Amino acid sequence: MSFYVVCYKKRNNPRMDVRICQKKCSEKDDCEEYLSFHKVAVQDKENLPPIESRSMQLEVA
Hints:
Helix content: 40-55%
Structural class: mainly alpha
Number of strands: 2
Number of helices: 3
Order of helices and strands: EEHHH
Shape: elongated
Strand content: 5-15%
Strand order of the largest sheet: 1-2
Number of domains: 1
Oligomer: single chain
């Protein structure tokens, strides 16, 4: 699944895939859009149950 951020430095097509931003942008450490996305992504990963418990839930269902 692709996630996008809006890059205000690009004029024609400001919507950019996060992976491209992460690899190519030299200013990603100061970019509010990238930092807010990264913060949300880290929080989502912390809220996921461990893989073992997810597989057990699938087996029970």
